[in-house]
Write a structure and sequence with these properties.
The chain is of the alpha+beta class. Helices cover about 30% and strands about 35% of the residues. It is built from four helices and eight strands; from the N terminus they run βααβββαβαβββ. Strands 1, 2, 3, 4, 5, 6, 7 and 8 form an eight-stranded mixed β-sheet that branches. The longest helix has 18 residues, at about 10-25. The protein is globular. It starts with a strand and ends with a strand. The relative contact order is 0.16.
């Protein structure tokens, strides 16, 4: 497994391709909602590759302030869920954020993924809300 953190065109394309398969095709989220104005050419993405041509997990790094990093659009290839790829991608994003001075991580995670994020050390802050047609909760972690 290779994990790449960059805004290089190949990495950007890999992240968007995996999100298309996961959120748009599999989950039915409209593509104009999934791909938003935060998907800029300079945005950093964390992407796990099983082989150089096969992205299997991703997340988007979204600084909220000089100390808080939002980990957005976290997903893993459907065929490989439950194999620890999501944890590895999240850990790589957290390590990068910590190395760049961020002290806390924030995630808006679907309720169905809440226990996954809690196992990764996050805790719920606030009440559930709806986003993209799904119940979501905000979770936070000290990095």
């Amino acid at each position: 497994m290779e994990i790449v953190i960059s805004n290089a065109p190949f990495n950007h394309a890999a992240a968007l391709s995996l999100r298309q398969a996961t959120f748009v095709t599999e989950r039915g989220i409209p593509r104009d909602i999934e791909f938003d104005d935060r998907d800029t050419p300079d945005r950093l993405y964390v992407v796990a590759y099983q082989r150089p041509e096969l992205p299997v997990g991703t997340l988007r790094l979204e600084p909220q302030s000089t100390t808080e990093m939002r980990f957005g659009r976290v997903c893993t290839s459907q065929a490989l869920r439950g194999q620890g790829i999501g944890s590895q991608v999240l850990q790589a994003g957290e390590d990068w954020a910590k190395a760049h001075g961020f002290t806390s991580g924030l995630i808006d995670g679907e309720l169905t993924a809440k226990s996954f994020y809690e196992r990764c050390g996050y805790h719920v802050v606030g009440e559930p809300f709806e986003e993209d047609g799904a119940p979501v909760v905000t979770l936070k972690k000290t990095l």
